[in-house]
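Bench notes, afternoon.
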Amino acid sequence: MLTGSELLAKVKELGDASKSDLVRSCGYVSTKKDGSERLNFTAFYEALLEAKGVDLGGSGKVGKGGRKLSYVATVQGNGNLLVGKAYTAMLDLKPGDEFEIKLGRKQVRLIPVGGVDEEE
């Protein structure tokens, strides 16, 4: 089974080949008990994504439900900006913890009350 730059080169070389031909040509084939071939599409696409630099491993922090944290917050329709439980748990924040809000140019910084603002 081809991986990395060899896989990318083979896919580029084959150009307009069918998906089945791509998978077969790159070596992602196994043999079933009855002797027929089985094309391993999932393994092929995972190897292709990895070769292109997309990390599929569980190396990132994971929030509730096993979703990978995006580190992006969106202003809700009512104007609230919500920081989810997964983030507050990572920071070991407890109900009642207080923060001073510092507004900058298109940014919001939260400094724990009694804490030190590192940018002052």
